[in-house]
Amino acid sequence: MTESKRTSANQELIRAVWDEARDLIKRLEGSTVQRFSVEAGDTKIEIERGMPAGVVASAIPAAAGAPAEDSAPAGADDRHPIKAPLVGTYYGAPSPGADPFVKAGDSVEVGQTVAIVEAMKLMNHVQADAAGTVAEIVTVDGQWVEFEQVLMYLEPAGED
Question: pTM, whole model, 2 decimals?
Fold first, then answer.
């Protein structure tokens, strides 16, 4: 195969992958999926969507008959839990070796990404649904988390 035919075939593959990704985006409108990638050969397309403020851990309804478990330690009732929006693998940083999204003591705003939960190769950003200071991160990087499992606690803004 000549170089020009190979380049043309690669361009056709890229266009086909892009068209499939675009169609998938249209079908996912209104879903909680925030990030996905499509790979074909050496070609990879990654797409990330922002989540509207206020749509965070409560985006997926609780399973019928399965109450959410709140594992707040004694005396921590005034802290605000940030919970996993779905089942998957918890990551505290955007990529291996990168600085974490937040650390204990950091101030966060509503809508700020504080972690990622990966499910089925899709990276779902976990956003703060309240402003405050990160009091405690109770989940370990790479840990499997359940739906509505507490990932971290915030001290509400204005209360120290």
Answer: 0.53
